[in-house]
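Exercise 4. Each item below gives a protein and its sequence. For each, produce the structure-token representation.

Item: Sugar ABC transporter permease (Paenibacillus ferrarius).
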Amino acid sequence: MKVLSTVLLLISTLVFIFPFYWIVTGAFKIQTVATAIPPEWFPLKPTLSNWLELFKNPIWRWTLNSFIISVVEMAAVCLVSSTAGYVLAKKLFPGRKIIFTMFIAAMALPKQVILVPLFTMLANFGWVNTYHGLILPAIGWPFGVFLMKQFAQTIPGELIEAAKMDGCSEIRLFSTIVLPLLKPALGALAIFTFIASWNDYFSQLIMVRSTSMMTLPLGVSMMTTQSEFLTNYGVLMAGAALASVPMIAIFLIFQKAFTQGITMGAVKG
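Answer:
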């Protein structure tokens, strides 16, 4: 049974890793080889021409935009979600259950449903093609509030009451007692948010209007380097490989946080 499980896991790993392998190898193939049928499974004559062509575009500007948006959004989501989750978990006030139910319902609502009114509102504010227009709408992430609320429920109420009896203010209570206890959940939420923001191609496609404001995934997808009617897939694969590096690095560094985040999402208080 153990051998069968190992074989199945190995097969599953190969299936999931194959697209990335194909992107990386395709980044070192010329156009005719990258689109050849039958395919060339490994580049017999690797070339760096795709990478040289890729860096003729403002790649570093796109990468900087992606990092600014993803990092700021990650910090803002963690702050808002941790405070909202703590309040919903530990504070008693009228309508608390209704508000939490609304967050749960919002998790099932596709982003495309609210995109038109959201774009209209941002256009009226003059926030289209700006950093804050890309960042602010994503701060109230329902999943983040749900995750933090579920984990905040595991904090002993006696600990909070003892701090209040010692004269601890709400701000000090939250910053010195609650936040340190929420660190595992915050670590998981930070990674989830960074990945979601980095890969948020659809919203960026709608909100961005200039080349200088493009993010790396959006810029890579817009590249057509040979002619108006022909896309250089080798260059696109090189861009896709470059765009995936931060995601792979973050997963390898914080993979325990991913596991903890999935587990904590199922905690019931």
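Check: Residues 59-90 form the longest helix (32 residues).
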